[in-house]
Amino acid sequence: MKKILDNLSNAAHATAQHMEGEIRQLAQAHGWDKSVVNNLHVRYEDNKFNVYVHDKLMDKAFVHEYGNEITRPTAVLRKYGNNPTGAGSAFIKSLGEYMGGTK
Q1: CA angle, corner 43, sides to 74 and 56, nearest 5?
Q2: Would 101 disulfide with which of 5, 18, 28, 96, CB 3.0-4.6 Å?
C-alpha cells in the first residue's frame, strides 16, 4: 500500500511540473511580464495543486490575471483551472510510468 501511495504522490508532483510548464507557456503567450512568468511555480501540497509567484511580483501577476484600469485581464490561471484535461492526462501518464508501465 505504501508503494501505491508513494507512486500517487510522485505522479502528482510530476504533474505539478507539467502544469507549471503549461501555465508559463500560456502566460507568456498572453503577454505576461517575463519576470512573472519565470517566477510562476506549481506545487502539489496537502492533496491539491497550488500556483505561486514570488512575493515581489504578486502585484504584477494580479494585474495580468485580473486587469486594472488600463490593462485587460487575461485570466490565464482561472482558464487553466477550469480546463483540467491536460493536467489530468499528464497525471494518468505519469502514474502509469511510476506504477511500472511503459513510457
Answers
A1: 60
A2: 96
The grid coordinates listed for 3 are 508503494
pLDDT in tens, 63-72: 999 999 999 9
Residue with cell 495580468: 64
User: What integer pLDDT is reported at residue 100 of this predicted model?
Assistant: 83
Are residues 9 and 63 in contact, defined by beta-carbon separation less than 8 angstroms? no
pTM of the model as a whole: 0.86
1 confidence band (pLDDT: 50, 70, 90): confident
Assign residue 50 a region: left if phi > 0, alpha if psi is -120 to 50, beta otherwise?
beta
The cell numbers describing 4, all together, are 501505491
Which residue in 92, 27, 95 sits closest to 57, CA to CA?
A: 27
CB 95 within 8 A of CB 7: yes
Q: What pLDDT, on a 0 to 100 scale, did the predictor assign at position 101?
A: 65
Q: Are 22 and 80 in contact (CB under 8 A)?
A: yes
